Amino acid sequence: MLELATISLSIFSYVTEENDRIVQALYNVLSPGMHAEKLTKIGTTSQFGDPFTIYSYESDDEEKITAILNHLGDQLDSRSRTYLTENLENKIDFDERSVYLRLDKYKAYQQQLVITEGGDIIKVEIGYNAYTQDENSYDGIAALFRSFHLIE
To answer: What would the mean pLDDT of 24-40 be, rounded to a whole number?
Structure first.
């Protein structure tokens, strides 16, 4: 069975957005018991000189990763679950042993977790360890995602 190795969540806050709302959107993806977790904050500028802030959360603690994925599975809307079921293979990088998801950051602020392909997102990267070729396969990852109710 695959082992969860890491999780990384990141979100951009542009100068026209309220940072506290963006931070809250990110916390809404974390399980409720993790709202005191520290976020990394990086201020930077775009290629056009516009300032923005990147907030991120990373963990390699399997209990925390499990809690986040359980919360995500509990809160993910049914259309997103169907979409992810149909498109999971496109979200997997087998070489990097990572799965990439994009959540709508504005919906997350409203406590609705929705998979999107849009631009204003919370990027979620889930890293896993696989010790055999059979484990590092679509079926292995689908079984893991099914166990968290992320896919049908």
So the answer is: 92
pTM (predicted TM-score): 0.93
Q: What are 68-101's pLDDT values in tens digits? A: 999 999 999 999 999 999 999 999 999 999 999 9
The confidence band for 131, taking pLDDT boundaries of 50, 70 and 90, is confident
The domain 3-147 having CATH identifier 3.30.1440.10: the answer here is yes
Domain extents in the chain: 3-147
Cβ contacts of 110-119, under 8 Å, gap ≥ 24: 111/28, 111/75, 112/75, 112/77, 113/28, 113/29, 113/72, 113/75, 113/76, 113/77, 113/80, 114/76, 114/77, 114/79, 114/80, 115/76, 115/80, 115/83, 115/84
Are 13 and 53 in contact, with CB atoms under 8 Å apart?
A: yes
Closest CA to 8 of 127, 113, 116: 127
Instruction: Say what the alpha-carbon torsion angle 22, 24, 25, 28 is, to the nearest 10 degrees.
Output: 170
